[in-house]
Specification:
Blueprint lengths: L1 H6 L4 H10 L8 E2 L5 E2 L3 H4 L4 H15 L13 E2 L5 H6 L3 E5 L11 E5 L5 H7 L1 E3 L4 E7 L2 E6 L8 E8 L9 E8 L11 E7 L3 H13 L5 E4 L1 H6 L3 H7 L3 E2 L14 H9 L8 E2 L11 H8 L3 E2 L4 E2 L8 H11 L1 E6 L5 H7 L1
The chain binds zinc ion (ZN).
Length: 349
């Protein structure tokens, strides 16, 4: 008994929940240590102390992994006591319907959905959230439990929610689920409007790290990959678009266009990335005095997009310096998919 308690500190609340459920509720299915289930008639369990019922339930959960299961680990996000195949077909399930797998906004509500009508009292008594949050429980129908936090949750924090209960129709199987979710990071503190832009190409790992950092900060950016980069990383453009970023033209092979003929400039732009963005960024910001680059770009339907802040992240500018540059004026920020401290800067904004 002591052993599983120490292994499962997080499970203590479940013991409390199940002990509460045990009052006047149908008995749960008992399971032997071998994992095969035998249904215990409610009458037989009525004599067992509540603590023992709770301990036995928790033991089953530990064996089944339900206590540790979050929505990502258990397909369907549901939890249910293990049992024989016959019992499994009959038991109620619960899933965390909100928040979803993405980082939750701090004003999220928590919504559980049960597969069957549930006994309200047993469900309400079982609800737990860790760390503790003040709030109210709502039961809009007999399969749905809502928790409304009284105040916004903390940024960049993990919460564990646990709920269980018995079906309204009776029966000897309980639903029980324990889920975790995380909230978004606080928004960047830049006093001016700003747009991050990322040029050229990078290793898949570097690009994924940038995407992950942008997602954590809830930022949408503009990417200017070269046509060569698009060809080398076929997943890149679809992944950028799927994440909600704009993907614009930065030529095919990144030449200094001011040294090329109008025909060569046209060929470079035409073979660049073209996925519904009318912005064109000339490599190095290089444009010739006669305006050929701008006029060829315009003839192909592009507007020139340069930048307000050049972070020189490719040269190793420290993250705190880049953050200070961005906070000082905002605007369009030039960064690269191959910057050295770029991810650090995004996370520190
Ligand atoms: Zn470039």
């Amino acid at each position: 008994m002591r052993a599983w308690r120490s292994r499962l500190a997080a499970g203590r609340l479940v013991v409390i929940a199940i002990a509460c459920l045990g009052v006047g509720a149908p008995a749960a299915t008992a399971t032997s240590s071998a994992g095969t289930a035998t249904s215990v008639p409610p009458a037989a369990v009525a004599d067992v102390p509540r603590e023992a019922v709770g301990a036995r339930l928790l033991d089953q959960l530990r064996l089944s992994g339900v206590v540790r299961a979050g929505p990502h680990e258990l397909p369907g996000g549901g939890g249910r006591l293990p049992g024989s195949s016959r019992a499994r077909d009959a038991g109620p399930e619960v899933r965390l319907a909100q928040p979803g797998p993405e980082h939750a906004p701090i004003d999220t509500i928590v919504r559980f959905e049960f597969s069957r009508p549930m006994a309200v009292g047993s469900v309400l008594r079982s609800f737990r959230i860790e760390p503790a949050v003040d709030g109210t429980l709502e039961w809009p129908d007999d399969r749905t439990l809502l928790f409304h936090p009284a105040a916004p949750l903390a940024y960049h924090s993990a919460y564990r929610v646990t709920v269980g209960g018995f079906p309204a129709a009776g029966g000897n199987l309980a639903a029980l689920g324990s889920f975790t979710f995380a909230t978004v990071w606080r928004p960047p503190s830049v006093p001016f409007p700003f747009t991050l832009t990322f040029d050229d190409c990078g290793t898949p790992e570097a690009i994924q790290a940038i995407l992950s950092a942008l997602a954590d900060r809830q930022l949408h950016a503009i990417f200017f990959p070269t046509g060569q980069c698009r060809d080398q990383l076929p997943w890149l453009v679809p992944a950028l678009l799927a994440a909600g970023h704009r993907v614009c033209n930065h030529t095919y092979s990144h030449p200094d266009l001011s040294r090329l003929s109008a025909a060569a400039i046209r060929s470079e732009i035409e073979r660049g990335v073209s996925v519904g963005c009318d912005l064109f960024r000339p490599p190095y910001g290089a444009m010739d005095r006669s305006g050929r680059v701008a006029s060829v770009a315009a003839s192909l339907g592009y507007r020139i997009q340069l930048w307000d802040v050049d972070t020189r992240d490719w040269a190793g500018t420290p993250a705190d310096v880049m953050v200070a540059m961005i906070r000082a004026r905002g605007g369009v920020v030039l960064m690269h998919m191959h910057g050295l401290h770029t991810v650090e800067a995004i996370r520190a904004l």
